[in-house]
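hey can u check if this looks right to u? its 141 residues, i copy pasted from the old doc so theres a chance i mangled smth
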Amino acid sequence: MCVFLYLFRDKNVDSRPKLRRSQSFNTSSASGIKQLLLDWCRSKTIGYQHIDIHNFSSSWSDGMAFCALVHSFFPNEFDYNKLNPAHHKHNLDLAFTTAEEKADCIRLIEVDDMMAMGANPDPMCVFTYVQSLYNHLKRFE
């Protein structure tokens, strides 16, 4: 979530600058954006096995959601039905490599980092990468 901060002076307290959140982006709009992105991911992966996208953490840990999302745009690049949900590293590498080669979407997450995070990767890391995927893949819709 991006939050803009700005300086202001409160003349009633003292003359030191203070930080205050901008009202242009609040929590509800950020959660709305996240929900829209989750909905988009779900719509692109309908019918794919081993997919249950409900968050930006555990839903992506085995790489299957990344593979399904990328495969929905580039179905000739790999056989999704031959993927094994237990092969996390392979799935993540396949999805990230295909997205980079076909959609010019750079890796914002490394496979080893995802592996180190285990079953619950950092939601902000995953959200940031999925948002980048959206921005790169939508031109292929």
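Residues 1-13, 15-27 have pLDDT under 50 and may be disordered.
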